[in-house]
């Protein structure tokens, strides 16, 4: 019996912004080597239901789209599937054209089939030419009359390597509305639920999912498949570890699918990721891409890696991300045809085989930040790859409009990055990680951002205390970090009111708009700027009038580390634009924190080898199901 690898689908909601992710009804031309959209025939009225659409007479629609093209290179490289079949059903006079591409985005036609009336176009395809990249897709051209596209799917006669279902683990903290929407989308997708053993909602908040108006009705539809578990707030790592633990007790679960709470899902993506995991040649972590929930055609993450020397995460081709599918779909973007291999995938949506849980353990007790990257690095060391799978994605609140390196999360950014480095870096003394960490301290200090430096130093002191600090701090580190903010006036956000706070100059400084480019110092100029700024902040007191009222005002785009240090105080817009922070130079804090930064980083470098041995030796215990069960019991 044919196994469906991928269904062709249309959006579950009437949102014109996301239609380009499903179909590409555009006419394009190339002008000066750049793709230019000439005309568009995208109409929501032509989408008839989840699987059917109308192609207007004389028009052509391409399914070379993110959600409906077939990522042939990933199936060839990571699975044993070699023979697949594309079936396209139409009603009316039409021409069905099937195409493939290579890793450079070069298009080649495979098939042209003219049909009329009720017809099915079937084409057998071999996955043997997609080593470096490439997609397969089809177009439909309507002749003199409208054509109804009745559906399509990509299938194989081959049996999967493993057949277990997936348990879904949704970790939430006071975002019940999103969770209810996710549960509703799953309840409306019976073809997805066929692959789901259990849905665990790990509710760690006070605004409970089970108390939402629509919850009882949706829970009734999901029946025994849904289980809500209440526990103390142990962060993302604690919530996902609970879902992992519960999945291990399910005999029918071969995978755990981790899902964040502030997301909107494409249900077909859930099904596809499970199917891909079943067909993978070896146990494989299957990750999803992330689109921006507030700008929905924009893709923010394709394949993410950890650079070894600085031991820092980034996305491949980060200079080209985010990619806006409203401006250029797959046919117009050669980069999207390459097979991009990832080191890890964010846990906004990530499928992990149960066999991997048993072999390498559960999440690190890190609360948030780096738990997903660390897990895939640990898995890679055990021979388990991570695949960030095209056509598998959801919409998540992106980091645009956030600056979590300045709030309580700075503690976890600093601690968990160094922790992951101690566990997995192959470079002596962590490569350039500690140098980069020290530079982060200097930037914050020069910008008069003392709160994140205090958190970063607390993080380093905790690391130096050894692995034993992780379990006791799991439920306490976040509230302690938030409580510390009370000691730093810069953390107060001044909202716009009838009498807004003003700078002494009374206007914003628009440096970047005057210069139209970044003017950051480099080379010898950078060294001189850093040395002179550090000396000035050490020796000179701020002018009294600048401590009672901000000296200047900067937009967020202008508030760079080489601009703010030249003043005594600054009024800076928050990342989300909802208010302003006041940064004021404090010579005493600056001096003590600078010395502490030097001391802590020297000590970390000196003790790196010993700490690395200690943390690596403790890792099996830190990530074992038994340790996590004990933590769940202690924090009830």
Cα shape: globular
> What percentage of amino acids are in beta strands?
25-35%
Which topology of the largest domain does CATH recognise?
A: Spore Coat Polysaccharide Biosynthesis Protein SpsA, Chain A
Number of strands: 28
| CATH class (first level) name of the largest domain | Alpha Beta
Radius of gyration: 27 Å
Instruction: Give start-end ranges of low-pLDDT stretches.
Output: 509-517
Individual helix count: 18
Instruction: Specify the helix fraction band.
Output: 25-40%
Q: Which whole number gives the mean pLDDT?
A: 91
- Structural class determined from secondary elements: alpha+beta
- Characterize the main sheet: 10 strands, mixed
**Total tally of structural domains:** 3
How widely separated are the two ends?
48 Å
Q: Which CATH architecture of the largest domain? A: Alpha-Beta Complex
Describe the protein's architecture and organization.
With 636 residues, the chain is α+β, with helices and mostly antiparallel strands. The chain has 3 domains: 3-156, Spore Coat Polysaccharide Biosynthesis Protein SpsA, Chain A (Alpha-Beta Complex); 165-396, Spore Coat Polysaccharide Biosynthesis Protein SpsA, Chain A (Alpha-Beta Complex); 410-589, no CATH class. It contains 18 helices and 28 strands. Strands 12, 13, 14, 15, 16, 17, 18, 21, 22 and 23 form a 10-stranded mixed β-sheet that branches. Strands 1, 4, 6, 9 and 11 form a 5-stranded antiparallel β-sheet that branches. The chain has a 5-stranded mixed β-sheet with strand order 24-28-27-26-25, with no helix packed on it. Helix 8 packs parallel to helix 9, helix 9 (410-424) runs parallel beside helix 11 and helix 9 crosses helix 17 (587-622). It is globular.
């Amino acid at each position: 019996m044919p196994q469906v690898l991928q269904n062709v689908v249309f959006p579950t909601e009437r949102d014109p912004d996301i239609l380009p992710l499903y179909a590409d009804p555009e006419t394009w031309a190339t002008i000066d080597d750049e793709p230019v959209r000439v005309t568009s025939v995208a109409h929501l009225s032509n989408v008839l239901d989840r699987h059917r659409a109308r192609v207007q007479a004389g028009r052509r629609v391409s399914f070379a789209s993110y959600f409906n093209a077939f990522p042939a290179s990933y199936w060839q490289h990571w699975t044993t599937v070699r023979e697949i079949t594309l079936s396209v059903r139409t009603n009316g006079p039409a021409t069905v054209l099937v195409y493939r591409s290579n890793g450079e985005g070069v298009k080649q036609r495979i098939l042209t089939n003219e049909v009329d009336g009720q017809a099915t176009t079937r084409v057998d395809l071999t996955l043997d030419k997609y080593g470096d990249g490439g997609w397969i897709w089809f177009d439909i051209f309507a002749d003199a009359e409208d054509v109804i596209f009745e559906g399509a799917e990509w299938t194989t006669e081959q049996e999967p390597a493993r057949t277990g279902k997936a348990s879904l683990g949704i970790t939430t903290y006071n975002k019940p509305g999103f969770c209810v929407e996710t549960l509703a989308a799953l309840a409306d997708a019976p073809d997805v639920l066929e692959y789901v053993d259990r849905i665990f909602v790990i509710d760690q908040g006070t605004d409970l999912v089970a108390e939402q108006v629509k919850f009882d009705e949706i829970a009734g539809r999901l029946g025994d498949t849904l289980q809500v578990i209440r526990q103390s707030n142990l962060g993302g790592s604690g919530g996902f570890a609970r879902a992992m633990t519960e999945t291990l007790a399910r005999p029918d679960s071969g995978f755990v699918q981790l899902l964040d709470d502030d997301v909107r899902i494409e249900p077909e993506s859930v099904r596809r990721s499970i199917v891909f995991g079943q067909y993978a040649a070896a146990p494989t972590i299957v990750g999803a891409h992330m689109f921006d929930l507030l700008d929905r055609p924009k893709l923010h993450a394709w394949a993410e890696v950890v650079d070894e020397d600085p031991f820092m995460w980034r996305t491949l081709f980060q200079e080209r991300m985010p990619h806006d599918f409203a401006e250029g779909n797959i046919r117009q973007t050669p980069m999207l045809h390459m097979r991009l291999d990832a080191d890890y995938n964010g846990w906004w949506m990530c499928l992990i085989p149960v066999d991997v849980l048993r072999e390498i353990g559960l999440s690190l007790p890190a609360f948030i930040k780096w738990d997903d990257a660390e897990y895939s690095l640990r898995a890679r060391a055990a021979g388990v790859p991570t695949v960030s799978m095209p056509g598998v994605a959801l919409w998540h609140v992106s980091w645009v409009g956030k600056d979590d390196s300045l709030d309580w999360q700075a503690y976890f950014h600093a601690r968990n990055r160094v922790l992951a480095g101690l566990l997995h870096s192959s470079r002596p003394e962590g490569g350039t990680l500690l140098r980069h960490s020290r530079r982060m301290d200097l930037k914050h200090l020069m910008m008069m951002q003392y709160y994140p430096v205090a958190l970063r130093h607390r993080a380093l002191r905790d690391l130096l205390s050894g692995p034993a600090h992780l379990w006791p701090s799991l439920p306490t580190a976040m509230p302690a970090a938030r409580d510390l903010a009370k000691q730093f006036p810069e953390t107060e956000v001044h909202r716009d009111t009838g009498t807004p706070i003003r700078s002494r100059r009374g206007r914003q400084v628009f440096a970047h708009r005057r210069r139209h480019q970044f003017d950051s110092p480099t080379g010898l100029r950078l060294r001189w700027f850093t040395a002179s700024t550090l000396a000035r902040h050490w020796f000179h007191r701020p002018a009294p009038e600048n401590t009672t009222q901000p000296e200047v005002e900067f937009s967020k785009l202008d508030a760079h580390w080489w601009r703010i240090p030249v003043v005594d105080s600054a009024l800076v817009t928050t990342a989300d634009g909802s208010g302003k922070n006041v940064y004021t130079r404090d010579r005493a804090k600056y001096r003590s924190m600078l010395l502490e930064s030097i001391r802590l980083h020297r000590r970390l470098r000196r003790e790196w080898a010993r700490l690395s041995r200690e943390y690596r030796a403790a890792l099996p215990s830190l990530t074992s199901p038994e340790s996590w069960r004990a933590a769940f019991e202690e924090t009830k």
